[in-house]
Amino acid sequence: QAFFCLLLCVPWGSSCPPSCQCTEWAGAKAVLCSSRHLEEIPKDIPKDAVFLKLDANSITRIPSNAFRHLSHLEELDLSRNAIEKIDRAAFKGVAAGLRTLDLSSNRIRSIPKEALLALNAKLRLANNPWHCECALQEVLWEARLDPDSVQDITCHTAPREEYVGKPLLQVLDAGVNFCSVRQRTTDVAMFITMFGWFAMVIVYVICYVRHNREDTCKHMEYLKSLPSTQGHAE
């Protein structure tokens, strides 16, 4: 019986990352990798993991397809790391089933909205050095944020100094629309570009006309300098 029990325990224990602890929590598989000095996401996380805790480590990036093989994953905790970059396909394969995603207390300044497409999870983004701009505003429009942490999404940097240090929600509630500012900037840039091209065309036309006029004048001078037909006849 002891040997039979050992056989049952080996598959789950052997597939567990060496720096983590694998156990059962509420009848589901849980992989606990908290405070293990990890610098990247372990590659050998069991496929049937439902809960994954990677908090309080030194992870700096979430690469594409990092959790794609974890089709049963429901809760993912990446808080209190040093995450600066999140790839566009970081949560591909788990977005639909994920219920909770904690990215709070990292070094995230911006996040591509493509990374959150089809993400139904309750999202925690508090305590990051956010750059308040249109991209972040679009994330807030589309993401399902944890209401308890929304007020802690603060503008670390922003297009205008008056927004720095303020909760992003407060800035948006005041009527600020970062996307309209970007649109106006784009429109101005397009207007300047079009004006530049138009000016170049005008200059070209003027130069062309002047050049033709000079050639015409030279040709007329040349014709006047030629002996007339009447002079030859006499």
TrEMBL record:
Main location: membrane
GO cellular component, one term: plasma membrane
Bilayer topology annotation: Single-pass membrane protein
Transmembrane segments: 188-209
Gene3D superfamilies documented for this protein: Ribonuclease Inhibitor
InterPro entries according to UniProt: Leu-rich_rpt, Leu-rich_rpt_typical-subtyp, LRR_dom_sf, LRR_TM_domain-containing, LRRNT
Short name of any one Pfam family annotated for the protein: LRR_8
Top-level taxon: Eukaryota
Signal peptide: 1-22
Subcellular location: Membrane
Entry keywords, A to Z: Leucine-rich repeat, Membrane, Repeat, Signal, Transmembrane, Transmembrane helix
SUPFAM superfamilies to which the protein is assigned, alphabetical: L domain-like (SSF52058)
Domain LRRNT: 15-51
Family designation: Belongs to the LRRC3 family.
This protein's name: Leucine-rich repeat-containing protein 3
Source organism per UniProt: Pygoscelis papua
